TrEMBL record:
<dbReference type="GO" id="GO:0019240">
    <property type="term" value="P:citrulline biosynthetic process"/>
</dbReference>
<feature type="binding site">
    <location>
        <position position="236"/>
    </location>
    <ligand>
        <name>N(2)-succinyl-L-ornithine</name>
    </ligand>
</feature>
<dbReference type="InterPro" id="IPR043696">
    <property type="entry name" value="ArgF'-like"/>
</dbReference>
<dbReference type="Pfam" id="PF02729">
    <property type="entry name" value="OTCace_N"/>
</dbReference>
<feature type="binding site" description="in other chain">
    <location>
        <begin position="272"/>
        <end position="273"/>
    </location>
    <ligand>
        <name>carbamoyl phosphate</name>
    </ligand>
</feature>
<protein>
    <recommendedName>
        <fullName>N-succinylornithine carbamoyltransferase</fullName>
        <ecNumber>2.1.3.11</ecNumber>
    </recommendedName>
</protein>
<dbReference type="InterPro" id="IPR006130">
    <property type="entry name" value="Asp/Orn_carbamoylTrfase"/>
</dbReference>
<feature type="binding site">
    <location>
        <position position="75"/>
    </location>
    <ligand>
        <name>carbamoyl phosphate</name>
    </ligand>
</feature>
<feature type="binding site" description="in other chain">
    <location>
        <begin position="47"/>
        <end position="50"/>
    </location>
    <ligand>
        <name>carbamoyl phosphate</name>
    </ligand>
</feature>
<dbReference type="GO" id="GO:0004585">
    <property type="term" value="F:ornithine carbamoyltransferase activity"/>
</dbReference>
<dbReference type="Pfam" id="PF00185">
    <property type="entry name" value="OTCace"/>
</dbReference>
<feature type="binding site">
    <location>
        <position position="142"/>
    </location>
    <ligand>
        <name>N(2)-succinyl-L-ornithine</name>
    </ligand>
</feature>
<feature type="binding site">
    <location>
        <position position="176"/>
    </location>
    <ligand>
        <name>N(2)-succinyl-L-ornithine</name>
    </ligand>
</feature>
<feature type="binding site" description="in other chain">
    <location>
        <position position="300"/>
    </location>
    <ligand>
        <name>carbamoyl phosphate</name>
    </ligand>
</feature>
<feature type="binding site">
    <location>
        <position position="276"/>
    </location>
    <ligand>
        <name>N(2)-succinyl-L-ornithine</name>
    </ligand>
</feature>
<dbReference type="InterPro" id="IPR006131">
    <property type="entry name" value="Asp_carbamoyltransf_Asp/Orn-bd"/>
</dbReference>
<dbReference type="GO" id="GO:0042450">
    <property type="term" value="P:L-arginine biosynthetic process via ornithine"/>
</dbReference>
Length: 315
């Protein structure tokens, strides 16, 4: 594997899932693979799970790791091509990235969307400049449109907990006070459309995701109908893709409640975290034995380790 920015970078998804499960059993089987190699983790936005799990994953492979919260600790960056830099920004992304590539053997980058201009966000300018100018493999730590490390961990978690060969997996929109990116649901749908699952996506009208990620999913506007017979309920808020970045609803009738979980086939509850309790999901559900959010977060470590291993083996 050269870069890891979407499911398209994976040649054999089931082999990668097996690799994740192997590393979960034997975390230190490749403890010398990354010796004398440095992973740089660059954050343009906050993180808990991605930062800590990827850092730990690199340690398990014997790598050294440098972490930078670039907006707080670095020079203000310009990302527009050809910009006349007489404003606030002191450094262009392409110079900063080329320099980082001199110090790191692999770079991870987190860069969220502005949610102001769909065309700009979906062009993935920051991620693509990292790929273009770093000269080293790039791992997405959640880009403007996708979160592949999360989706790989999600797929592994579903593989571990499924009760039938092709489980019904429901991605449900849930309310939230803020406008959030579409990266997690886009990426989840993209990975699930390539997996042995029956994917149903439920959301209020106007929250349709980019069809390029949902081609193999059924869209059901009635949340209760969607929940019937589900083996997994994956909750997430996102802002509108059609009316780009807008909050069209804060309807608490979409909150995942214990009553709604009763419609499912004793479904497991999943969420990528961080989660707004009693807005996205009721305490009663997330604190129930059917909630696997912590196991899901734990799998982030093994997912990151498998991806780093694949890249180290390639370089
Ligand atoms: N990496 C996991 C999700 C990150 C981000 N959530 C957030 O920004 C939540 C912020 C809040 O709840 O205030 C998102 O939805 O893409
Ligand atoms: N799920 C996830 O990516 O969490 P963080 O934003 O805390 O990294």
């Amino acid at each position: 594997m050269k870069h890891f920015t979407s499911v398209k970078d994976v040649t054999n998804i089931s082999a990668l899932v097996e690799e994740v499960l192997f590393l979960k059993q034997q975390p230190y089987a490749f403890k010398h693979l990354g010796e004398n190699k440095v992973l740089g983790l660059i954050f343009m936005n906050p993180s808990l799970r991605t930062r800590l799990s990827t850092q730990r994953a690199s340690m398990n492979l014997g790598m050294n790791v440098i972490v930078m919260d670039i907006n707080k600790e670095g020079w203000k960056l310009e990302s527009r091509e050809g910009a006349v830099m007489d404003g606030d920004a002191a450094e262009h992304v392409k110079d900063a990235v080329a320099v980082m590539g001199q110090y790191c053997d692999i770079i991870g980058i987190r860069s969220f969307p502005s949610l102001e201009n769909r065309e700009d966000d979906y062009a993935e300018n920051v991620l693509n400049q990292f790929i273009r100018y770093a000269g080293v493999p790039i791992v997405s730590l959640e880009s403007t449109t996708l979160h592949p490390l999360q989706s790989l961990a999600d797929l592994v978690t579903i593989q571990e907990y499924k009760k039938t060969p092709k489980p019904k997996v429901v991605l449900t929109w849930a309310p939230h006070p803020k406008a959030l990116p579409q990266a997690v649901p886009n990426s989840f749908a993209e990975w699930m459309c390539n997996a042995e699952v029956d994917l149903v996506i439920t959301h209020p009208e106007g929250y349709e995701l980019d069809e390029k990620y949902t081609w193999n999913a059924t869209i059901e506007y009635d949340q209760k109908k969607a929940f019937e017979g589900a083996e997994f309920i994956y909750a997430k808020n996102w802002s509108s893709y059609k009316q780009y970045g807008k909050i069209l609803s804060k309807d608490r009738n979409w909150t995942v409640s214990a009553d709604k979980m009763k419609l499912t086939n004793e479904a497991y509850f999943m969420h990528c975290l961080p989660v707004r309790r009693n807005v996205v999901v009721d305490d009663e559900v997330i604190d129930s034995p059917q909630s696997i959010v912590i196991k899901q977060a734990a799998n982030r470590l093994w997912a990151a380790q498998a991806v780093l291993k694949k890249i180290l083996e390639h370089t």
